[in-house]
Design goal:
Two copies of one chain form a homodimer. Chain A has 618 residues and is α+β, with helices and mostly antiparallel strands. Chain A contains 21 helices and 15 strands. A six-stranded mixed β-sheet of chain A has the order 2-1-6-3-4-5.
Chain lengths: 618, 618
């Protein structure tokens, strides 16, 4: 019997030729690779090569959703963008909430694969009946919010669009893809917006309404009823302060980046917290399609320099990267910076990373006002922050260099710049410090897309919380190395499933763990996976992405942390440095990888990835 | 009063134009930079730039000796070659014993600086009266021993020559410069032979007899009489088995490289020891000019495949790198390999490094018989060893790749090759394992020329032995990190003096430490340096070389060990991994360098290196 939860179709658009193809998605592929990042990784592996230039026409930009997307299961309406990253040169993926995923799926497709590059700006329009490539010359150069407004005016308010801003057009390697207009959600990481820009694709407009078939509507309804109380319970506190409710505690335990990851304490933490936001600029909340958590913030500047601005507010990562990382403690300024990033289409994490780097380079005399158009890049300067965001988006002055990401910028600046260009495999890290939690250290070092907190998502499951049905032992000491490799191994496999389903990871806090996820998937598809089989698929997908990178030369030497994260922070904080070598040894053993971090033939066979063994250079 | 021990002249030869210049060496420069590598580093810093191509005509090849060279002080007759290394791309130096240094000095010069590149092969001849650049077309292509014979036949047996073999001519980046014919001594490291080859300079022939002026002949005589008993005492045991007398103990404590640094134990250690050599192939001993230690071996194959070979024998480093590192335990085979390296002009340490690397690449399937001209590169294969030496020297088959050193070879092979290309800053390490001694770990990581045991020379001073008058505390545990940074800091400063004096470091075993060295220097020059001032000059010279590298972008990120040296060896051995980050932190503090390993302005001012501050990019 054919699985449910699938539309069974992939749309493939070649912008070199304008050819549009509908490809059948076979059931075997679905069962092996699920959807989202799993399916995307498979397509990317099979149709790009070592030589593929991430910004060349031969790179693929893949949008993919999962089996539960578009069903009544809340939190499953995210979508995944998969591509070869221009920022890191390796496997790239970015995940996004909002409403686009659901409406895309309801067009009748599981994935959209874009190849080639149009000569002039275009947009793609999709619904159940037609797919068209349309002229978008009039939209080129426009900010994301304007494009969203234009599209809703043209196609109706139920049309959703995934768009790039000027940053993506300018091939800024930290550019993102934005949906949902002013209540922006973004596929942020790995410079996916630059790949879209390189294809001269301004927007993907979707307007689907088809029902997504499920195997057991009844089973889903019952399961949702069962878990509703615990989700509601969790939501109550979470919606109050959003993701930044933990800011002050994060500062206390040494988890946030301060002064480009140089300093321990940050006195201003209380001024940029979710609590402070609620007391000051917060005016409302919003959520992704079908979600009950309401983590989105609406903020408004009642007075001051940004008076009148009413906009989606910054979440934890943004507050920390644009804030503490640059020694900025003015929450309105950060909200303004967040707005600019969303308008221009810039990843706020990487943007905060390159700005912290630039401020340090300025302090050390490697960058001067000659490079900045006269702007002094002083720590804590809101003026510098906002002007740098613009410089990066438009590649002006020093922004042209920073648009390449910290790794490349440091290489071009020379001297000691590489010492404080903070990245793993080329990706600027999110606001979690590896010196504060050993699973974060190992997760950053080994995540397939570079420094990432979402591919292991362990940071909240290292001490008190744990996921019983994952077989994860409860850990008690975040500085100890014992048990951490196993924790990261399990969580990366689980997160591979989340990103393929494509489901929001916050549901874990509400107690939706392996068992209910497996039940949701089974009720949707009609499969009868056990928890163990569910997790094994996650392991397969994680290894598939690893193999994509192995083919590109990634191995143990790259599974490391930047030098700065292996020395103590100034001014106090934590006292432990991650024993990265020992953590890796243990981790590779759980993974069944060889001493260089290469999946063995035996492991690939066990995971049913025989055809990917060829990607392995011994 | 002018200092003694100096001839006061530098010979500068430009092979582009044939111009020969005699430059006055002023007393201030001598007092600041002494001679040997100190003087060489100053000249190199001042007359090469970031852009200088190591194999281009603008690179300098500097031969330099020290104040005591050519005097009656034994063990001071070494010479130093300083250049920008084609192997590492940074500061390069190589040190050599034998008789060349003394005879060069007696030509009336303290240094020879060669610039440019001749269009046709040439040699340089020097004595007190003349310097000539002579046609050497007939010598091009010849092995080192032949050249030595030719030169002695032409210029008389008292002429000494520093020559390159085919490897240097072929720009093999691990090529050395050889003196003393069959009793070969070599300036081995950093590919100095390739720089000589790039200049088409086959030989530097010297034939000086001038007396070297000293301030107090009497003081020197008295001092030598005083230290003679202890040197004789030490020599008795040292001359018996040479540098390889400790082979079996080195294996026991985990100090030798086994299977490209992969394995702990090596059963064959007893078969390649100095003791075994004395029982089998040893027929005589030899020594450098004026030395009493007799560490040189003469070996002869009475039978077997190399029957009739009578030649300078392999010393410890060679036995380990061509032997245990390749799993070879046949001492005659290693002696033959050593002979070939000397004939062709290859550094035996780097050659053993690239061959161990090649054998591992073969085992892992990254190199096949297609690449080797059909030779199976099996571990332990003497046939493979000898054929690879030839392939490297003549850049045949895989040898063309290996001739670039392991770092470059791995980059071109791709895949996981970088994981087992063992080097620091591009230089293949000598036979001392950083996992066995923490000072070796820190010394390898921070030495100015890359992985080096001679720039810190701590490996015998980490447990029982210590140098009291250096202010070095006695250490008791080679695995502990305490005291190691200070030990390395002191020893590197002292070794900078040794390499500038240019004196053999083995005298330390005979008890010639800081005080007697200072006395020798004072008696030679007429200075009245205190021990503290003596050591401060050493610190200055070490920082000068560091600044040369800093100008080229070297910083903390480069002060590290290859990934393999940060995991445990297979099959047992030591159980401690070097805590390299913590060792570096403490070391930089002793050095007065900033957190990135950059000498501060304050430190450079304190050391009288104000004019080198410009080399520092913040």
């Amino acid at each position: 019997m054919k699985s449910k939860g699938y539309m069974g179709k992939i749309a493939r658009i070649d912008l070199d030729t304008g050819t549009i193809t509908r490809i059948k998605l076979d059931d075997t592929t679905v069962r092996r690779f699920i959807g989202g990042s799993g399916l995307g990784a498979k397509i990317l592996f099979d149709h790009t090569s070592v030589e593929t230039d991430p910004l060349g026409p031969e790179n693929l930009l893949i949008f993919a959703v999962g089996p539960c997307t578009g069903t009544r299961i809340f939190n499953s309406n995210r979508y995944q963008v998969v591509t070869k990253s221009p920022l890191t040169g390796i496997y790239g993926e970015a995940n996004c909430g909002g409403n686009w995923g659901e409406i895309f799926k309801k067009c009748g497709y599981d994935a959209l694969v874009v190849r080639g590059a149009s000569k002039t700006p275009v947009s793609i329009y999709m619904d159940e009946k037609r797919i068209t490539v349309e002229d978008a010359s009039s939209l080129w150069g426009k900010e994301t919010f304007e494009v969203d407004e234009f599209i809703r005016a043209k196609y109706g308010t139920s049309a959703e669009s995934a768009v790039i801003g000027p940053a993506g057009e300018n091939l800024v390697k930290i550019a993102n893809i934005v949906t949902d207009g002013k209540h922006a959600r973004a596929a942020g990481r790995c410079g996916v917006g630059a790949v879209m820009g390189s294809k001269r694709l301004k927007a993907v407009v979707v307007k689907g309404t088809s029902e997504v078939p499920v195997a057991s509507e009844d089973g889903i309804r019952q399961l949702m009823r069962r878990i509703a109380p615990q989700m509601n319970e969790f939501s109550r506190t979470f919606k109050q302060f959003g993701t930044s409710g933990g800011m002050e505690n994060c500062e206390k335990i040494g988890n946030i980046p301060v002064k480009n990851w140089y300093q321990g304490p940050f006195e201003g933490a209380g001024k940029i917290s979710g609590q402070r936001m609620a007391e000051t600029i917060l005016t409302g909340r919003y959520h992704c399609g079908r979600c009950v958590m309401n983590c989105g913030r609406v903020v408004k500047a009642a007075d001051g320099p940004y008076r009148g601005m009413e906009i989606g507010g910054p979440e934890y990562e943004t507050l920390a990267l644009l804030g503490s990382n640059c020694l900025i403690d003015d929450i309105s300024c950060i909200a303004k910076g967040n707005e600019l990033c969303n308008r221009y289409g810039l990843d706020t994490i990487s943007t905060g990373g390159v700005i912290g780097f630039a401020m340090e380079a300025y302090e050390r005399g490697l960058v001067t006002e000659k490079d900045t158009g006269g702007v002094p890049l002083k720590w804590g300067s809101c003026d510098a922050l906002l002007k740098l965001i613009e410089m990066v988006a438009f590649r002006k002055n020093i922004g042209d260099l920073l648009a390449e990401g910290v790794r490349n910028a440091a290489q071009r600046i020379g001297g000691t710049a590489a010492e404080f260009s903070i990245h793993v495999k080329g990706l600027e890290p999110p606001a979690h410090d590896p010196r504060a939690k050993m699973t974060v250290a190992l997760g950053f070092a080994t995540s397939n897309r570079g420094a990432c907190h979402l591919q292991a998502f362990t940071h909240d499951f290292e001490e008190k919380k744990f996921i019983e049905d994952l077989g994860m032992p409860q850990l008690t000491d975040r500085f100890a190395k014992e048990g951490k490799a196993y924790n990261v191994f399990l969580m990366q496999n689980l997160m591979s499933m989340f990103d393929s389903l494509t489901c929001c990871k916050f549901v874990l806090f509400g107690g939706i763990t392996v068992k209910p996820l497996t039940e949701f998937l089974n009720n949707t598809t009609g499969w009868d996976l056990t928890d163990g089989e569910f997790m094994k698929i996650g392991e397969r997908l994680y290894n598939l992405k690893r193999m994509y990178n192995v083919r590109l030369g990634i191995s143990r030497k790259d599974d490391t942390l930047p030098p700065r994260m292996l020395v103590h922070r100034r001014g106090g904080g934590t006292n432990v440095l991650p024993p990265i070598g020992e953590l890796l040894n243990e981790y590779y053993e759980y993974r069944g990888w060889d001493e260089f971090g290469i999946p063995t033939d035996k492991k690939l066979q066990e995971l049913g990835l025989e055809e990917y063994i060829h990607g392995r250079k011994k």
